[in-house]
Amino acid sequence: MKVLLAPDKFKGSLPAADVAAHLAAGLRAAAPEIEVDELPVADGGEGTVAAALAAGFTAVRLSATGPLGAPVATRYAVRGATAVVEMAAVSGLEMLTAPDPGTARRATSRGVGELVAHALGHGATTVVVGVGGSASTDGGAGMLAALGARLVGQAGDLPDGGAALRDLVAVDLAGLHPGLGAARLVLASDVDNPLLGPRGAAAVYGPQKGADPATVAVLEAGLTTWVAALARTPVPAHAPGAGIAKAPAPAPGAGSAEAPAPVAARELAGRPGAGAAGGVGFACLLLGAERRPGIDVVLDLAGFARRAAGADLVITGEGSLDAQSLHGKAPVGVAAAAAALGVGTVAVCGRTALAPEQARAAGLLAVHALTDLEPDTARSIARAGPLLEQLAPRIVADLAPRGHR
């Protein structure tokens, strides 16, 4: 029997690689004849680079701008001409000790752009940007600034942060990184929110980043100004702007030359995914990025189809298996990919809020939770590794009579 282990992290407890390692140890102890293959995954947020590294990518370590402007040690992953950038590792909410209205106004996505620029400068022609877990709500302005855009206010170059965008007067995209012209960008995100409005980045996700109602209004105003300024900005004629969507060019006046087409900022701001990561999704779409579900991107990068071929069972999981898991999270994405190969999937988790029929509808043959063994949540989190090993005999015993396909 061959089993492929493809879990996501147990947030606050174990990274995905450790989840897989503990499951593997338990399975080998319970049934030594089982062939176990470990393939930790992620959904595009925290852990995406780690999943790429586990799949054979190489780490590139560097210093970049953190969410509040101070330099942070970070990394991205590279294999051949493909680079994987994880926003949570450079501009992540988890990097803030205590998010509050002040940090929500100042947080920047500049570090993401620095990582993308570094990758482009070292030969990457495909750059995957995983955007979960962001601290900023700056519409990706910091990211674009790091890639060569110039943002100008009344007093000169604009400082970073979503609140500062209210003072934006003009944007110049002529200096965008030349590598963007030939690069393929992939936005790894499951978020389908637009940039602005009641379902937008500030209104929906701002409070999770420390924004109070007044700060949400400030951030919304900044994003609105950002879109309006870009809508007046001509698309560069040369390679750096090759992927930027153009709005219809304004009609030239009598006797004048045809005016350059401006950025299609208003149309892009309304697209699904523009509101991802405080608007970094919008900036990626502006640069011509292809938007794909994060788990699908990670599974492709990790070679899931090749690794799952011939498996009798896939085991996936995450810390909390609940209604949110049904909308683009790793376990359901893994189950769907395994089902396409004719392989059944079971899930392990810290806790589950899914009814058995919900789990089955999501493609999961069974769900095994650590709280089945240790009902106390704090102790379950603290002892997640040993408890995962203890779950293994249950998985083996439960699945034997079911069959595996």
UniProtKB/TrEMBL annotation:
Any GO BP annotation: organic acid phosphorylation
Database matches in SUPFAM superfamilies: Glycerate kinase I
UniProt keyword annotations, A-Z: Kinase, Transferase
The keyword Oxidoreductase appears for this protein: no
GO molecular function, one term: glycerate kinase activity
Protein EC: 2.7.1.-
Organism placement in taxonomy: Bacteria, Bacillati, Actinomycetota, Actinomycetes, Micrococcales
Keyword Ion transport: no
Record's protein name: Glycerate kinase
Family of this protein: Belongs to the glycerate kinase type-1 family.
Transmembrane segments: none
InterPro entries tied to this protein: Glyc_kinase_flavodox-like_fold, Glycerate_kinase, Glycerate_kinase_RE-like, Glycerate_kinase_sf
Pfam families assigned: Gly_kinase
